[in-house]
Structure formats: structure tokens, C-alpha cells
Amino acid sequence: MYNTTLSADSFTQPWAGNDSANSSACSKNDSFKYPLYSTVFSIVFVVGLVTNAVAIYIFTCTLKLRNETTTYMMNLVVSDLLFVFTLPLRVFYFINQNWPFGSTLCKVSVSLFYTNMYGSILFLTCISVDRFLAIVHPFRSRTIRTKRNAKIVCAAVWVLVLSGSLPTGFLLETTSKENSRTNATFCFENFSSKQWKAHLSKMVIFIETVGFIIPLLLNVCCSIMVLQTLSRPQTISRGGKLNKTKILRMIIVHLFIFCFCFIPYNVNLVFYSLVRTKMLKGCSVESVVRTIYPVALCIAVSNCCFDPIVYYFTSETIQNSMKRKSQVGRTYDTKFSDALQSETSSNLQHSLRNLKAKVFHNESSV
């Protein structure tokens, strides 16, 4: 029997189906999440749509030189946009607390949430590993760091992410609210304790290991080894202080976004799984996890807005392209201004000649 308290997402939401009396007795006072979700998701939709649309324009229309790094970034943009397009449906649900769009769209929306989160994690990790190879092993990695290999890696990431997110989303079933005057249909909330014990706890282990722990370790290890390489005297003399500063700034931005967006949600997910499988018991634990979850989810969703920052700091190609665009604009403005001044001067000279001719004509006729 499902608990009909409204919840917000498939893994960490459904305090539905609490089987024990002790769990049922726990107070579930988390209605603050609905205005929080609707507000944050609306902002993320607008900012994420604009920034990622600009990013995809740069990748497809502006960049003349494309390499393996931009290949990973283009796939990251696609992952972000797929999720951003589902946010208006979620905002509608959080405001109205009713899902009128049917079971299939609910499942797709849930699947795209996990596709975006773990796709972002894995593509950011690919960028980090690519940077590690380029800086720590610049010569030996030449045969590995190719656009063809980058496309193969991206295809493997999509297969891996979809193999985890699609089953997660399509295990979910929408249900109608019972014992109420309104027949509100739920989305993102229907996993019972039995489902958690049978299937979902294993899925959490898979996505946390492959989609979070291993990528986190890779990002941290790659960043440490890059910093060690940059600290060597021969590297400093070869690359210069300015280049080292740029790379250091790039690493800091990358790690900050990765840790800020993904650690809170994924750590909370582990504890939630332990609570739902009854390995952790107690109302205090349940209350803490329920309170942390909405904030962690909003932070995780904000990665759609932060990813374009990674594009700029990670890719010198993009920076150069944007500088060229700016220079072209300034050159055009200068040429236009010069032409305008030249035309104005020419017109003025022509007017003066006409005036002089008229004056001369008048003088000679007197």
C-alpha cells in the first residue's frame, strides 16, 4: 500500500510504502520543498536554456577548430538541454501537485534527470582525464587523444548512462491520490520498500559506484597529478607562469563545480537507500535525510547553469573564438566609423565646393 504523501523524485523522494509502524509514526513535514523546487527549477530553466543555447551556437557555428575536448563538451551540452526541456513539466507539477501529462512523460522526465546528472559527471570526468593526458603525458597521449577516440568514449558514456537511467525511470508508475476530494496524479514518488529491497538498492550501488565514486576519484587524482606536473621547474620554465595560472584556475573551477553540484545529492542518496532498506532506522535519521534532499536536489540541477563556465575555462579554443568574434566586431565598428567619417568628409567637401561655385557665380554676375 503506497503512502500518498506528495514527494518529489524517484530515488530519494518516496517515503511512500513505509512498512513499519515506527516509520509511519515519523512526522513528514517537508512541504517547503514545493515552492523551493518551483522557484529554483524556473530559474535553472531560463538560465540553463540561454547559456546552453549560446554554447551550442558557439560549438556548431563559431568554432572552426574542433578537438577531443570540444567533442566532450558538445555531448555535455546535449545532455543539459535534454533535461532543461523537461523542467517546465516539473515546475507545473510542483506548483499544482498534480501530474496531468501521462505516465510516459513522467518516466521520461525521471530518466532524463539521471541521464543529465550522471552524464554530466562522466563527461566532466572525460574532460579532466583529457586535460591530464595533455599536460602530464603530452607526447605519449598523442595517439590516444584523437577526435575519433573521443567520439567512441562519448558513445560508451551514453550507453552506460542510459543503461542506468532508463530502467530507473521506467520502473516508476504514476498513481492517483487516494482518500481525498481531489484525484491528483503523482509523479516521481512511487517506489515501495519492497521495490527498494528487491531492485533499487542494487541500482543505487551501481550508479553510485560507476556514476559518482569512480569519476570523483578520477577527477581528484587527475587534478593532483596535473598540479604536481605544473610544480616542476622544467614545466614552469617551458610553459611560463601565465599559462600555469590559467591551468590552475581551470582546475579549481572544474573541481568546485563538480564537488558543489554532485557531492551533496549523491551522499544523501546513499543514506536514503540505507533508510529505505531498513539498514538505518529512526525518525531523526529519516527527518535529516528528508530535509537535506530538496536542497541537494536543487544544487544538483543547477549544474546545467554551471557547465558553460567549464566550457569557457577549459577550452582555449572557445576563448580564442570568442576573442576573434569580439575583435571582428570591433574591427567592423572601426571600419564602419571610418567609412562614415570618410563619407561625411566627402559630403562636406562636396557641399563646400557647391557653395563656393554659387558664391563665385553670384560675384561674377554682379
From TrEMBL:
SUPFAM superfamilies: Family A G protein-coupled receptor-like (SSF81321). One of its GO terms (cellular component) is plasma membrane. InterPro entries: GPCR_Rhodpsn, GPCR_Rhodpsn_7TM. The chain crosses the membrane at residues 36-60, 72-93, 113-133, 153-172, 203-227, 247-272, 292-314. It holds the Pfam family 7tm_1. GO terms for molecular function: lysophosphatidic acid receptor activity. It is found in: Membrane. Keywords: Adaptive immunity, Disulfide bond, G-protein coupled receptor, Glycoprotein, Immunity, Membrane, Receptor, Transducer, Transmembrane, Transmembrane helix. Residues 51-311 form the G-protein coupled receptors family 1 profile domain. Gene3D superfamilies: Rhodopsin 7-helix transmembrane proteins. GO terms for biological process: adaptive immune response; phospholipase C-activating G protein-coupled receptor signaling pathway; positive regulation of Rho protein signal transduction. It is a multi-pass membrane protein. Belongs to the G-protein coupled receptor 1 family. This is Putative lysophosphatidic acid receptor 6. It comes from Scophthalmus maximus.
